[in-house]
Amino acid sequence: MEFIEIILTIIPLVIAISLGYLLTKSGFLKANYIDAFKKIVVNITLPAGLLVAFSSIQFKVKYIIIFAAVFVTCYILLLIGKLIAGIFKVKSPYFPYLLTGFEAGMMGYALYGGLYGMDKISEFGIIDIGQVTFVFLILVPAVLSIGKEKSDESRVIASLKTAVNSPVIWAIIIGLLLSVAGIYQYENTTLFKGLLNIFNFLSAPTSLLICFIIGSGLKLSVKGMKKEVMTAFLKVLMAFIFALLLKVTLLRILGVEAMLSRALVSMFILPAPFVIPVFMSRQNESDINYVSNTLSIGTIVGLLLFILLALLNFQ
Questions:
Q1: I want to staple 179 with a disulfide (CB 3.0 to 4.6 A). Which of 40, 59, 140, 298 is the partner?
Q2: How far is it, in rounded angstroms, from Cα 75 to Cα 82?
Q3: Does domain 3-311 have CATH number 1.20.1530?
Q4: Beta carbons of 260 and 70 less than 8 angstroms apart
Q5: Residue ranges of the domains in the chain?
């Protein structure tokens, strides 16, 4: 992609995110509107796009190794976060969980699809599977457990129910199953084309809606948020280093470096998952502000880095 093409691709995303911010600040976009946008994206538009993207790829066994590697990497980042918290006596119990996992659903897919085309989001999805598995199996139960008895198994059950009921996860699973079954062999049939048009139409608003969601949550002031800024930058630095390590080792060994390295690095510069505030305890206001502000700063950093990687034509 030429430099001018990248600029022209980025401009609509920046405008949409800016509109989301300005319309929210002006009061035109209410909190309930944003919640509705999130529900539409999570339950309709994003699953439709993911189903098309995953069903169109030719699944390879080597992808399973990538799923596992990303899962393990997320877990290692969590362990490093706990180690840092112990050494430097970080007070917030949520600190380690802000250093791992990535906000793919509400940010990554829209940015990646917007910059490189919705037909390319399967690349991003291949990297996301291990990450989203980690989020629902490890991160969410751990966040739910903070301040509660460890024997409370309902936390894990609640997390698993959230995963099982997620249309995004089912879209990925069904898409992969259709890919393995060889659905692409029927791509020239009338029925296939008709269904494809329907799902493409449903997925079309994804990028715009998510850009509005991202813009609505931005806090452009970082005054008095030294800890939040340090957490956000530490997270992206650690994750970026691990992404480069995976790129030059695992992806190169598997022979998929050219296809997936851009998606890998793109995901690893994103902020921690936005589900953390959803599942965290609401009793400590300072923790709530710390998590929310860190995610907001991480969103701005991730967005700027996303654009920078595109401008550098990173591969």
A1: 59
A2: 11
A3: yes
A4: no
A5: 3-311
